[in-house]
Design goal:
Layout: H1 3-13, H2 16-25, H3 37-42, E1 47-50, H4 56-72, E2 77-81, H5 95-103, E3 109-113, E4 125-130
Parallel strand pairs: 1-2
Antiparallel strand pairs: 2-4, 3-4
Helix pairs in contact: 4-5
């Protein structure tokens, strides 16, 4: 039995929503709506920033401001489109590594998905799951 089989068996027998309700049953957070990380991963992106055409000097501050604004608005899943760098010198992105360094460990960011699926932007995008501001 390989990992995929074990994971499939576990997900079919594990009720995440029930486990979360049980965990929160005795806590003081009963009135707070709790959203699991897996449900956030499956949800659609709530807002996005496209950095195509933004000057290198402005890209990082624009991206950080976007993350902080989205966090303040209570959003949980956002996308930053950096592009692949195909039109950059040498065909490599100059903006993408700087954006990753700036937002990956930002205090508002819970998780950073550097290689999203093609329908989520693929290698030209970064998906950020933000911490709840509640």
């Amino acid at each position: 039995m390989d990992f995929a089989d074990i994971y499939k068996q576990w997900t079919s027998s594990h009720d995440e929503e029930k486990a979360l309700k049980k965990r929160l049953a005795g806590s003081d957070r009963q009135g707070v709506e709790f959203v699991s990380i897996n449900s956030i991963r499956r949800m659609k992106v709530q807002d996005e920033l496209d950095l195509h055409g933004v000057k290198f000097e402005d890209a990082v501050s624009t991206a950080v401001s976007f993350v902080e604004d989205c966090h303040a608005r209570g959003l949980l899943k956002i996308r930053i489109i950096t592009g692949k760098g195909l039109h950059s010198p040498g065909g490599r992105s100059v903006i993408r590594p700087e954006i990753i360094n700036s937002v990956q460990f930002h205090h508002c960011v819970r998780e950073c998905i550097l290689h999203p699926k093609a329908e989520d932007g693929g290698s030209g995008a970064i998906i950020l799951i933000l911490k709840s501001n509640k």
